[in-house]
Amino acid sequence: FPDCLDVSDEGFCEYHTFQRACTDQEFRCSNGQCIDQSQVCFMDKDSRRLGCIDNSHLVNCSDHQCPSEDMYKCPKSYCINNSRVCDGFPDCRQSLEDEDSCEFKCGENDVCTCRDGTMNCEDQGLTDIPKINVKQHTTKLLLKDNRIRLRAERMKAEDLYHVTYLDLTNNSLVEIPAGCFNTTVTLTSLSLSYNKLWYLDNGTFPVPIGLKQLHLTGNMIQYIEPGTFENLNDLTALDLSNQELSVVYKNMFKGLKSITVLNLAGNHIN
User: What top-level branch of life does the organism fall under (predicted)?
Assistant: First the structure.
């Protein structure tokens, strides 16, 4: 690699004259330079110093196997250290794959991490559902271990329209305000487990939505108003384990036409 402006530092080097034969532990570069075999098909920050100046040690690497689990194989190309994956700089120069599908900071004040349609905001001390950038196509929202208070106005916001999976586990919720789930028509899985809910009324799900899984385990539910689940015709799994239920009332499970799993373990039903 020429460092002098007149290229004089590269004019009389041995790799130009082919005078020295490479050893069995060395690889001959296209320009005649000899490098250690360990540098073949390996690209790192020291490649300019330890590899071929003309980068010929990084070609014809399609079938090369990375010698260590600490390395990442660029598609049909050379290996890089795992530490260079998702570091904000593309090292797989042909495919840029080392920077694809990487986690990145997102949400208000960058307290969440996003990756492949999942927004993870667990255990961040949040009191409200963070706003989602609609361009990120978020479908899975993880809000476990916060102090979020559900608000119908927030749940109706456009940025939540495409969320299909919502985890509100352990948020100390004591109630579900009326109208919270009026517009969540794409929601298929909802976890409200390990909160402090003690009742469910028939205003919880007042309109038909496509919910398929509802997890409520570990609350303190004592009463479920008949008709609460009447609009959940697509629900296949309902987990009501570990509550304070003692009586199953008539029409308590009315509307559950598709249910295949109903868990009532850990209650006090006579």
Answer: Eukaryota
pTM: 0.69
- Confidence bin at 79 (pLDDT 50/70/90): very high
Residues 25-52 have pLDDT tens digits of 999 998 888 999 999 999 887 766 788 8
Is the confidence at residue 220, as pLDDT, over 90? yes
- The DSSP code for 117 is T
Question: 3-19 pLDDT, tens per residue?
Answer: 665 556 665 665 555 55
C-alpha distance from residue 238 to each of 90, 150, 167, 176, 258 (Å)? 45, 21, 15, 17, 11
90 vs 100, 115, 197, CA distance in Å? 9, 17, 48
Q: Return the beta strands (E) in the chain as ranges.
A: 26-28, 34-36, 71-73, 79-81, 104-106, 112-115, 118-120, 140-142, 165-167, 189-191, 199-200, 213-215, 223-224, 237-239, 261-263
Give the pairing type, strands 199-200 and 223-224: parallel
Structure tokens at 179: 């109208």
Burial class (CB in 10 A: 0-12, 13-18, 19+), 51: buried
For the 103-270 domain, the top CATH level (class) is: alpha beta
Q: Give bridge partners of residue 34 from the DSSP assignment.
A: 28
Going by C-beta distance under 8 Å and a sequence separation of 6 or more, which residues neighbour residue 204? 176, 178, 180, 181, 228
Contact residues for 54 (Cβ-Cβ < 8 A; gap 6+): 29, 30, 31, 33
